[in-house]
Amino acid sequence: MMSYQDRRKTEHVLSPEFLRALKQFSWLVFFLLLSIPACAELIILRSGRQIEGKILDRTDASIVLDVGIDVDITYYLDEVAQIGDEKIATRGEREHIMEFSGWLKQDIEKFLKEEYEFTEFESVDTLWRHLRNADEQDDQTKLKQYTDLLSAVQASHPDSLLARFGLAYLLLKKGEHQQAEEHLSAIRQKRPDFTYLDQLTVDLYLETGRTPEALALYETIALKPSKSTLEDTSLYLKFSRAYQNNGEFAKAVAAARQSLALKQDPQAHYALARALNADGQYKEAIDAYKSAVTLEPHFYDAWQELAQSYLRFDDYQKAAEVYQQLMSFDISKVKNLYEYAYCQLKLRKYEQAISNFRAVLVMEPENKAAAAHLQTARRKALRYYDLKGKELFLAKNAEAARAAFHHAQEFGDELADPFYFLAVISFNEDKDYPQSFELVSKAIALDGSRAIFFYQRGLTEQKLNKMGEAMDSFEECLRLDPQIRHAREIKAKFPSLK
């Protein structure tokens, strides 16, 4: 462990003058947040109501307005969302930044009282947590306030490692990589064991495409872990992704498992699933994806990749269930709707597939795959209901058969059989001979090679007293199939036919 004297050599000493300047700066920030010119302004309340008026007085708790009536109106700042172009922080936001400023001041005072070596980890950890929380919440107001405070410290004393570290974090998040690296390099020269330095350096390497350097640093961290690296689940997630991008899939799996050992986190399960997929462990990946969406039910990417994993095993039922879940999040995603329709096609849910493929084509008229699958689904639906009608016809359920054949024709009229069977039903059940003749004629127009069609037409023509036409139909029937089971019956009625 470094001695206190060694630490004093590598850390800065802040003068009482600087502390007074910092205190003044903190009050200045606070004052700027709360003060605006006393002139006519547009006031927007948190309720959404807008008021125009002249500010007569303003404190840290309220404003007094002259709105052109005899009585001045007072509004508490907690009621106000915006004054002119200035957005008003809530009481919680104002208290937070003052708390942060106060914490920074207290930390510096501890250093001056020679207590810094005992509080260093806690101090950097507090700063790290403040910055990460604001970053994760995308709270630009807090991030700007942190930047101003840390810049003031660093400007007054350029060797402040704490300020350099905080600024490096903020610069890195803004994509200003060169300036962030300058701060990190300055810290590493003085204190290579500075808390969280390795984590932030890893972020820099990964964001600037220096994956080999990031992985080399990770190997060092893994050999000699510190308290902060041992407890940082996000660090192992980053390396799982980095190893995967580098083609080292087994190491990517191991890093994700290390993260999960620290905390059961949906992002860690997702990283593990992706690493397992890349490593060819597809069934294990499905379990990891399921764990991710169990912990985070609205984890869109995990749901989508889970669906793809089911499709890899042709498990269309489970894939369809996942796509249904995805569309409950966002119905406008064409790819998901297309895949859902494809699953329905494979599950023989032809009508649903047709409906969804049509919806895809509304959104993407040039989608050739959807158009092709739509035709496949339509043909399969036509044949499915055609077969169902035949089964019902053979079971002597004429009405149900009729409904099935009519349903088949909703998907296309290129099959002859539905017309033929509907003709037979009209002939036998309805005694509607003109309708029967029309239907069987359509069947013959679609397929003129079926002897039974001509036999049925001949029977219908007999009922319509068209004996000459009936004789022609029976003759064609025998020509197509001399051995048809109705041949003896036909010849008995028409002896002249061969």
Describe this structure in words.
This protein is an alpha+beta fold. It contains 25 helices and six strands. The chain has a six-stranded antiparallel sheet with strand order 4-3-2-1-5-6, with no helix packed on it. Strand 5 and strand 6 form a beta hairpin. The longest helix is centred in the last third of the chain and has 27 residues, at 368-394. 34% of the residues are buried. Mean pLDDT is 81; it is low at 1-14, 27-38 and 111-121.
In short, what is this structure?
The chain is an alpha+beta fold.
Key traits:
498 residues, alpha+beta, SH3 type barrels, Serine Threonine Protein Phosphatase 5, Tetratricopeptide repeat, six-stranded antiparallel sheet, 25 helices, disordered N terminus
Give a topology summary.
Layout: H1 4-10, H2 16-34, E1 40-45, E2 50-58, E3 62-66, E4 73-76, E5 80-83, E6 86-87, H3 91-112, H4 116-136, H5 140-156, H6 161-173, H7 177-190, H8 197-207, H9 211-223, H10 227-230, H11 233-245, H12 249-262, H13 266-278, H14 282-295, H15 300-312, H16 316-329, H17 334-346, H18 350-363, H19 368-394, H20 398-409, H21 417-430, H22 433-446, H23 451-463, H24 467-480, H25 487-493
Antiparallel strand pairs: 1-2, 1-5, 2-3, 3-4, 5-6
Helix pairs in contact: 2-3, 2-5, 3-4, 3-5, 4-6, 5-6, 6-7, 6-8, 7-8, 8-9, 11-12, 11-13, 12-13, 13-14, 14-15, 15-16, 16-17, 17-18, 18-19, 19-20, 20-21, 21-22, 22-23, 23-24
